[in-house]
Amino acid sequence: MSRRIKNIIAVVFSLIRFSLLKIIHGNRFCFKGIQRFSPQTQLFFLNKGKILLGNKVRVHTGTKIRAISGGVVEIGTNATFNYNCMIVALKNIKIGAGVEFGPNVLVYDHDHDFRAKGGLKANKYKYGSVEIGDNSWVGANTIILRGTKLGKNCVVGAGCVISGEFPDNSIITQKRETTVRSV
């Protein structure tokens, strides 16, 4: 099937799907204009979570966007998510306009609080909002952790695990070292 036909099908499917989601979830789901979501994407709302989409957001197969326990995911105009990305908000994740994600990018605004009484089984979390500035590019297999503020026009190299604040126009990479020894 040609690419143009696949895009038309995805846009029509998204319009129907999003209209139904709007009816079911009301103001917890907002979208503007045309969207291009693969039918194999998941949008998940739980306990007053909200997902807000700008115009012309493109999302490929396998991507999951989850807003849980009052969490808000806000995605700007012309944002693009490649295959198998996952965005999970328990508080707030804001992705700017024109942001592009490579495949398998993960974004979380929370961590398990393993020091809480009862350990991981206690299901306690630490939170920190995530903001990704306009026109940034995030390479494949990157993990963005709670409390990250990525400026505008940034590039994050593939495979990075990032948290903290990064100014506008930054290139973020992490050194990796391969060691080979005899058996």
Structure description:
- The chain has 183 residues and is mainly beta.
- It has a single domain (3-172), classed as UDP N-Acetylglucosamine Acyltransferase, domain 1, CATH 2.160.10.10.
- 13% of the residues lie in helices and 34% in strands.
- It is built from one helix and 22 strands.
- The protein has one helix spanning 3-25, and strands at 29-31, 36-37, 42-46, 50-53, 58-59, 64-68, 72-75, 80-81, 86-89, 92-95, 100-101, 106-108, 110-112, 125-127, 130-132, 137-138, 143-144, 149-150, 155-156, 161-162, 165-166, 171-172.
- The strands form four sheets. Strands 1-4-7-10-15-18-21 form a seven-stranded parallel beta sheet. Strands 2-5-8-11-16-19-22 form a seven-stranded parallel beta sheet.
- The protein is globular.
- It starts with a helix and ends in an 11-residue tail after the last strand.
- It comes from Mesonia algae.
- This is Succinyltransferase-like protein.
- Keywords: Transferase.
- GO terms for molecular function: transferase activity.
Work out the radius of gyration: 17 Å
- The CATH fourth-level homologous superfamily: Hexapeptide repeat proteins
What is the number of beta strands? 22
Would you state the CATH class?
Answer: Mainly Beta
CATH topology: UDP N-Acetylglucosamine Acyltransferase, domain 1
- Kindly give the count of domains: 1
Helicity, in percent? 10-25%
Listing every helix as H and every strand as E from the N terminus to the C terminus, the arrangement reads HEEEEEEEEEEEEEEEEEEEEEE
Kindly estimate the percentage of residues that lie in beta strands according to DSSP: 25-35%
Give the strand line-up of the largest sheet: 1-4-7-10-15-18-21
Structural class: mainly beta
How many H/I helices?
A: 1
**Average pLDDT, all residues:** 93
**CATH architecture assignment:** 3 Solenoid
Shape: globular
Distance between the termini: 50 Å
Poorly predicted runs of 5 or more residues: none
Q: Tell me about the largest β-sheet.
A: 7 strands, parallel
InterPro entries: Hexapep (IPR001451), Hexapeptide_acetyltransf (IPR051159), Trimer_LpxA-like_sf (IPR011004)
Keywords: Transferase
Pfam family, one: Hexapep
GO molecular function, one term: transferase activity
